[in-house]
Each structure stands twice: as C-alpha cells, then as structure tokens.
Amino acid sequence: MKRSHIIQAVMIVLFSLSSLGIIGGSFFLRKAFSNSSEPEIITDTTRYQEIRNQLWYDFEDVKHFPNQIPTDAKDIRMAYSPGFLQGGSFFQIRLKQSPEKIKKLLSQYRNNAKYQYRGGDTNDHINQPNGVPTTFFYTNDSSEGTFTNEYEILVLNATDRGKPGFKWNHGDSYGVAINSSASEIIYWAEQW
C-alpha cells in the first residue's frame, strides 16, 4: 500500500514540474521570438540628458547636441535607439527655435561641416561620389524617413570602421539637419 502512495506522490510531483517547465519554457520562447527583436525607440524628451550624458556610447558624437533642451525650443521631438545585437544605434532631437538662432546655428555648422547634402537620407548620401552615411529622418511627423530638400544636412564627422572590401560596414557619423524656412534644427548621431 505504501509503495503505491509513494509512486502516486512522485507522479504528481513530476507532472507538476513538467507543467511548470512547459509554462516557463513557452514564456521564454515567446520572449525570444516576439517582435522585441527590434529595440524600443525612446521618444520621452524627459530622458534627453540621461541619453546624451550617460547612455550614448561615445560623447564625441553628441558633444554638438545642446547640454539641455533650450527653454525657448518648441515642437520638440526625440528618437533614441540603443541598437540591438549587430544593429546600429541612433540619437536624434528635433526642435524649433527663433529664425535668428537658426540662422546663427546654420552659419556655425556650415563652417564646421565636412560634408553637406540637401534633402535625402543616409542611403542617398552614401551613394554620392565621395559620399558618407548620415541618418534617416527618425523624428519626422510621418513615417517617411527621408529629409525634404528644405533640409540642409551638415555632417560634422563620419568615421569608417569597416574592413578593406567592406567600406562603411561599421562606423559612425554625426551632425545637424537644418530647415531655415521652418526655423528647425535636428541634431543627430548614428553608430552601426
């Protein structure tokens, strides 16, 4: 009699453990294969300083960004992605300021730019003669990732970290995109 009770108890424990294993395993498989394979894009502007000063991997790429969001800035949009596995990361903040301030910033950044483009996106820019990767318009109000011709894209630096035969396979670039007619500036940094 006792032996059958022990066998029943062992069977109950084994069934319970296997049920927990199935539930736990399905949870981890669901997490592994869910759409979370793409990193979350952070758009919360209250995290701006944290991202600029602590989360971005290389301060040199974001030193041209404002230390804090200017108090007179309007229509602020931000997009930050820390990257995932082999995927790149990006950081972009878009804001409107007075026409006088934008004119001053345009002059400053034009003087420091190593490359200049009008409209387009990183794919357009890299495919031009002596072109370099730039950025997509992540902070656009629509899903369109290309800058219109009103934007002057000024590349402050671009570093190719690819291997021979794989130009621009890895690297980084940073700069600004300015739309004078809209009194708007977009600070950007990319790493891939």
Characteristic terms for this protein:
192 residues, alpha+beta, 2 domains, six-stranded antiparallel β-sheet, 6 strands, 28% strand
Q: Your description of this structure?
A:
With 192 residues, the chain is an alpha+beta fold. The chain has two domains: 2-36; 38-191, no CATH class. It is 33% helix and 28% strand. It is built from five helices and six strands. Strands 1-2-6-5-4-3 form a six-stranded antiparallel sheet. The longest helix is centred in the first third of the chain and has 32 residues, at 2-33. Keywords: Membrane, Transmembrane, Transmembrane helix. The chain crosses the membrane at residues 6-29.
Terminal Cα span: 68 Å
How many structural domains can be distinguished in the coordinates? Answer: 2
Number of strands: 6
| Strand line-up in the sheet with most strands | 1-2-6-5-4-3
Write the element-wise H/E pattern from the N-terminal end onward: HHHEEHEHEEE
In short:
With 192 residues, the chain is α+β, with helices and mostly antiparallel strands.
Secondary structure elements and pairings:
Layout: H1 2-33, H2 48-55, H3 59-62, E1 74-81, E2 89-96, H4 99-112, E3 115-120, H5 122-126, E4 147-160, E5 171-179, E6 184-191
Antiparallel strand pairs: 1-2, 2-6, 3-4, 4-5, 5-6
